[in-house]
Description:
Layout: E1 5-6, H1 12-21, H2 27-38, H3 52-61, E2 62-63, E3 68-74, E4 80-85, E5 91-99, E6 102-106, E7 110-112, E8 127-130, H4 133-147, E9 152-155, H5 165-176, E10 188-192, H6 196-205, E11 210-214, H7 220-226, H8 235-249, E12 253-259, H9 267-277, E13 282-288, H10 302-314, E14 319-321
Parallel strand pairs: 1-2, 6-9, 9-10, 10-11, 11-12, 12-13, 13-14
Antiparallel strand pairs: 3-4, 4-5, 5-6, 7-8
Bound molecules: S-adenosyl-L-homocysteine.
The site of S-adenosyl-L-homocysteine has 16 residues, from strand 10 and strand 12.
Amino acid sequence: MLQMEDIKSYTLKELEDLLREKAYPKFYAHQIFNWIYKKRVENFDLMTNLSKEARGFLKNNFYFSHLKLIERETSEDGTEKFLFELDDGHRIETVLIPEGKRVTLCVSTQVGCKFKCRFCVSGISGFKRNLRTSEIISQYLEVAKRIGRITNIVFMGIGEPLDNFDNVVKSIEILKEPHGIYFGRRRICISTLGIIPKIEKLRELNLGVKLSISLHSPDSKVRTFLMPATKKYPLQELMKAVKAFAKYERYPITFEYIMIRNLNTKKEDALKLVKLVKGINCKINLIPYNPSPYFEWKAPSIQEIEVFKNILKKCKIFFTLRKPRGEDIKAACGQLKATFKD
Ligand code: SAH
């Protein structure tokens, strides 16, 4: 039997190469992209500007995978959480965050997470598998179909995007493709705990997407305590890679900093943070810890936040304070969880 391929895992370039190999015109790839991603048609029979023979070839070799929407919850603040079932029965979550004119989609990249950060629910049940390119793209297509305009995409859902590097890169290439969705590269952001070689690879690929680093402490001991997986990627080296990235891309890198009460919110932490990021074109995103029954941490006090903020302000470090969104439906940062079939 022929091995059927999931068409939404193909970049335009891959599709062009394949069609050329089979002696079909290269521009068929543009037309197929146009059907799938602009007209949103998922049926080869309806792709009437392709030859009948080509449609037959596609039908015999490709299929359209689907995410099944199991549940859609809306938070009091307008945040929505979508629970999707994959073809093999595993489940992932995708979050939509409307905020004024901005509508941000937060996509997952893995079923579960290997990295077990000590504040994030996604790692608790462990890791099952990487999401396929099509499963990343379909999160966008499925949500867009229901709500319309999405202005920003962040790779900040379940999983570590740079640990599923090839599929994440391919999904970005598909999102950016002018013959398809044509999503602006600067409106896409990848968040990572800091896998250094992959940050370097990302820079070499010149995708133009934004980079966000989950920093959480300027102290390498505290950082590796909170994120044991970062032991392999020392903080000083990470900062070098980030500097190189920022210099190359010429736009600010974001450092995410979860504020946890009595842990990383002292005056000294703020001063150390200032020193660490000095000279880097960056922005700090302060995220008050979202409490969860799985961990004993507490959200920071208002006073802790104020003191921390004032130091950054005084030292002229640009920062934002993230409002927790969707807490009531467990859609906030660090609250997403995959469910495994078995
Ligand atoms: N693995 C990637 C992407 C997923 S995490 C990464 O580490 O960046 C997305 C963001 O949510 C990260 O900054 C993460 O540190 C943050 N986060 C995780 N748990 C959180 C919690 N309980 N409260 C607030 N933010 C949390």
